[in-house]
Design brief:
single chain; alpha+beta; 2 domains; two-stranded antiparallel sheet; two-stranded antiparallel ribbon; extended; disordered N terminus; disordered C terminus
Length: 137
């Protein structure tokens, strides 16, 4: 059984993973297939190949009126950036620079990402429009 996985952030609410609406799931399937077709013309393989969309229910669901879906993909690799690469890099940085403080790391981020007691997460900067990427028209 698949359960929506979320990570709570201190002030920014929840980042939901593994859950989507039907229309966003279908769009993700379509766009993944389309990108795969375009890249295959240049002999470039994509990491995720769409397989389908799975509708599921969560026991003790606090939002039973919201139908939940999960996109299913065949992957060429087992590792994901946020689940494997970034935690590994964080471990590596801590090993290489054991005396590095969080304040020294924060100074490396752009000013618009520095908020109070921490760094504004990338997903939040994209959603709020504070990311330079989202401000390009």
């Amino acid at each position: 059984m698949l359960v929506c996985v979320s990570t709570q952030t201190k002030d920014d609410g929840y980042e939901i993973r593994g859950c989507c609406f039907e229309h966003t799931g279908l769009n993700e399937q379509y766009m993944s297939e389309r990108v795969g077709q375009l890249l295959s013309e240049h002999e470039i393989a994509v990491g995720n190949k769409p397989v389908g969309l799975w509708r599921y229910e969560v026991p003790s669901d606090t939002t039973p009126m919201v139908t939940k879906y999960c996109g299913l993909f065949k992957t060429l690799g087992e590792r994901r950036v946020s689940s494997h690469l970034l935690p590994g890099l964080e471990t590596l940085v801590c090993s290489l620079y054991p005396s590095l403080t969080k304040e020294e790391v924060w100074c490396l981020f752009p000013a618009e990402r520095q908020r109070g007691e921490g760094i504004l997460p990338t997903w939040s900067t994209c959603c709020t429009g504070t990311s330079k990427v989202t401000s390009i028209a």
